[in-house]
Predict the 3D structure of the following.
Amino acid sequence: MNIHEFLVTPSETARRDGPHSKIVMSSRVRLARNLKGVAFPGWAKKAERIRALEIIRPAVEQLPALKGAFSESMDNLTALDKQILVERHLISREHAAKNAGSGLVLNREESLCVMINEEDHLRMQALRPGLQIKQAWAAIDQIDSALEKKVEYAFDASLGYLTACPTNLGTGIRVSAMLHLPGLVLSEQINQIISAVNKLGLAVRGLYGEGTEALGNVFQVSNQMTLGEAEPDIVERLNKVLAQVIEHEENARGSLLEKKPKTVLNQIGRAYGILANSHSITSKETMNLLSFMRLGVDLGLFPDVERGLVDELFVITQPAHLQKQFSEKLGADERDLLRADMLRDRLRNVSRPLGAPPGHETGAKVDKPVEE
Amino acid sequence: MLCCVCKEKEATVHLTQIAGDKMQKVDLCEECAKQKGVNDPAGFSLADLLLGLGASQEMESASGVEVKCPACGFTQADFKKAGRLGCSQCYQTFAEGLEQLLKSMHKGTRHKGKVPAALRESQDLAERLKSLQKKLEKAVNEENFEQAAQCRDEIKVTKEKLAGISAS
């Protein structure tokens, strides 16, 4: 079976719901592990990497939780396949660049994904919709405990799990949540929030992780420190911070509607106008506009649209997903035309947004400037 | 105050990170701050920045001679270039230089949290063995031979269990 037959359709994954999914798009916990006595993937010679892959892959495939999983060596995936996996947030951009000697094992539900020979021999992650980092930790902890019986990890009593990069040393854990924060961006509070979160020792990154832009008002918040703090404490700390960010985003949305309703409605109305009517649109513009449409859905301005449709469009309008639907190789300009065609088609039955959120009256008043 | 990256220009950007009871400070000039992406709210992480700084400073000051990992042949220069280590042995090889780096990067320098079950078991047994040996010594000193005999038996069982684990 190839990866395209295996993957669940974006329409189905986008409709998976979790707690706080209005603001928290997904939760993820990943663990970094290495084999004892084998050089880390970045330094190991090809033969040694292949040997590590041959030890790890069958061990992972045999785990009951990964029964019926998709398992493949990275050199058997095309560049397009890999890019699709990146756009689905199943593998990192770094892993997409790997070839022979690296591998991938992905379960049926797409809730467990193991990257073999990325930066470490093992990068295993559990994914959940909405805010469920505790559940994700429990799931990956179980996988890890089962796997440690089959392969011997590089572990040191005082330094913990040994990783290629010292930033992952100790627990090797990265707990993260992907947040949609249009309210904080529109109210210009986002930089304040980011620096506050940074000060607490947590990282804030863009849509595709390290060094990427925050497209579509989507931000990833994750722990940075991995040594000297136990996993449940890290999970708990992140949960507390996330609860605060969620609260700030909710407040920001509330006060925007209160104080600057026209600014918000204008953004949402224009986003709909362009998405539903354009004939050429880049993937970046699409994501930024879909973000406002998502906000419109959350505010009740599109009574006949579910959030799942917007989240599906987030995925299928991205370059590799778009390319996959057409047999001939597309240039960026052609993709922009086809993306616009697809959006017009998918939004043709969506009525334009209401003039005001249900229960709100806005009238013809101009927004008052807000005092700082 | 001079910028801690280029060590040439005056530092105008001051960053602070607090985690628990630990505070980390970095001072940068405007140019280096821009280069490190400090102004880009989405792409910045203090740990990455510290890693860059630490890799060039701490590792160098550790010792004058070039250290090479006996297990994988990795050198300090390789670490400076890649920011990653060669193998798990490297943590021992470069322990001295890494200590400061780990201190600046993490909450502590000792692992807390999950331990592979097999190791946890042998750690527990080793601790039990220690306390039994103390108990035996005390019993012998007090000429409590009945308890001493009991301790000796328990020590024997614990040692066998330990041997069983390390053999498997």
Chain A has a mean pLDDT of 92. The first helix of chain A runs from residue 3 to 6. Residues 252 and 278 of chain A are 30 Å apart (CA to CA).
